[in-house]
């Protein structure tokens, strides 16, 4: 599916539209927004920006740990904000429903500017979810509960889960998945060193993050066929980047772990052969999924990137020293050939889908 | 133009040509679909792998032909030869492998020439020359990925060069202005006549390939702002002794940035002649106020500007870039050391309430306007 924008750019470049008619074509094709579209855009943008600015402001305020304000006043403030945000969501949500019902009944003659889109109604819910985390952090800060940092994020994720489910908003689900990822990372860092999660036993965290994000990706893709509000592509792409980065990194660790260089292999000695078995499975699953069921060129490009990196890494760690300076030339040419080959293959698939 | 606005716009993708025909904007048969272009992420992948391939190629030269690196003459000669070879290859062939090979060869050539500059001048002049080199390659090289990379590096070098020549803080705004100008004139076509003058021919080529250049400039400015918001004194990091007195100060950069934002808003308002003068003034004042607020929280106006530019041409990549940079700048603000968290909290609260108030006023005004027109 090519967007109107791309189609129009092609037509202009082919010279099919005369110079003085381009402006009119931009308006007809809706590539350039009309006044009403701008109004709608600013309606949503200002709501989100304002909401985010206020949320960050409260976050900074609590993080400052101001002595002159008593702890009860602070608790009261954040709790009040949570309640206000939830109440605002409830009110806006009802209003949106009423608006949608009334617009179903009476078809307005003029193109009315929708004051309340569903996205705007969800801003306070998103704010409430973050305020709740601020409240938990404030609790930890005030009473010095001695809990580990990962517990804060995990509890936060568990406690906002009901809101996430009723919210039906991709951004809220991504916040939730992000919190779980963060708590996994902090859990393993807690028991390893600060830089620990890259090497040795902390590679466990890479495995857990890989499995969690792959599972989340699979669920997202399956459910998005049923629920239209999950159809935004940015979220599964981010999840795929997380899952792909982890498994590619593990695979590189596995390759380096078996190389002759002692300083390379020492850090990865415990990683074993497991990535060598899991990585191909991941590749095939991703390929089949995104070639056959949900056509997405971005994902296929990601798989090829992973393959390119792993192959180059294998060649560098095993052959470079043996071949000497010609090795550098060889690797340089290999990179060019593999990247160009990937681009050609991706274009072929894209052509197949377009026709 | 105004009656066009009243007509129903196109909704279905297949009917774009049909509706253009209906409005008499095109004539005859729909032209055949041109060769499919790779999407942006594939081009990005090619650019990055081209750079890595160039590094390995230089590694090969460094070990196998050490004499090239001994003095600047060798570096200049080999670098120039490589760049010319790349140009000839770009011109000659449309094969993807050759295209990508030329990309890597050109990158290696550039790095060698820059290495020569550093050996020969050993001072700030090499930054200036690198800027000039990158901008000339951006105009000459007939390849979109190359144009993007040259524009990005050229703009980065330009900002640093200005800082080294006692003019810090203003380079970013200049680059942003260039990017915004290109985006605002994205769909303009130069006339197809033959060009007698070489210079006009070069300028035409530049204008007809403006998208990669605009992306490069914009990314350079976003990276610069990111550096500025995470590490305010990055100019001091670049320059090892900013001993000379500086001719520009941070407020000048902020003011220039506000002017760029005003220019963009003004140009976009010009596209809607139906808007009453009152609305124009309100929009301009609001954009000025947002720019003023981002004197404190860096980059927020830049991110909003990118979002608005993206929306003005249905460019989803630009909108995504704007959202990502907005989130990055907001989190960078947390670590900005010049103000305490309490002061930042108040600034943000003020900004949030201000933005919501604008939204409220905007909706009130449009409701009133609609009531009036309905009557």
Question: How does the SSE layout of this entry go?
Answer:
The complex is a heterodimer of chains A (355) and B (375).
Chain A: H1 4-13, H2 22-28, H3 35-64, H4 71-105, H5 118-121, H6 123-143, H7 149-167, H8 170-191, H9 203-224, H10 234-257, H11 262-265, H12 274-293, H13 297-323, H14 325-354
Helix pairs in contact in A: 3-6, 4-6, 6-7, 7-8, 8-9, 9-10, 10-12, 10-13, 12-13, 13-14
Chain B: H1 2-6, H2 16-22, H3 40-64, H4 72-92, H5 96-121, H6 125-140, H7 144-164, H8 171-184, H9 198-208, H10 210-230, H11 234-238, H12 250-270, H13 277-293, H14 300-312, H15 316-334, H16 341-374
Helix pairs in contact in B: 3-5, 4-5, 5-6, 6-7, 7-10, 8-10, 8-12, 10-15, 12-13, 12-14, 14-15
Can you walk me through this structure?
The complex is a heterodimer of chains A (about 350) and B (about 375). With about 350 residues, chain A is mainly α. Chain B contains 16 helices and no strands. The N terminus of chain B is likely disordered. Chains A and B meet through helix 1, helix 2, helix 3, helix 13 and helix 14 of A and helix 2, helix 3, helix 5, helix 14 and helix 15 of B.
What fraction strand of chain B?
Answer: under 5%
User: What structural category do the secondary elements of chain B indicate?
Assistant: mainly alpha
Overall pLDDT score of chain A? 84
Contiguous helical run count of chain A? 14
- What is the straight-line distance between the termini of chain B? 25 Å
User: Main β-sheet of chain A, in a few words?
Assistant: none
Write down the oligomeric state.
heterodimer
Overall 3D geometry of chain A?
Answer: flat
Which two chains touch over the largest interface? A-B, 89 and 88 residues
Helix amount of chain B: over 70%
Residues in β-strands, percent of chain A: under 5%
Task: Return the average pLDDT of chain B rounded to an integer.
Answer: 84
In total, the number of strands of chain B is 0
Order of helices and strands of chain B: HHHHHHHHHHHHHHHH
Shape, per Cα inertia axes of chain B: globular
Terminal residue distance of chain A: 10 Å
Biggest β-sheet strands, sense, barrel of chain B: none
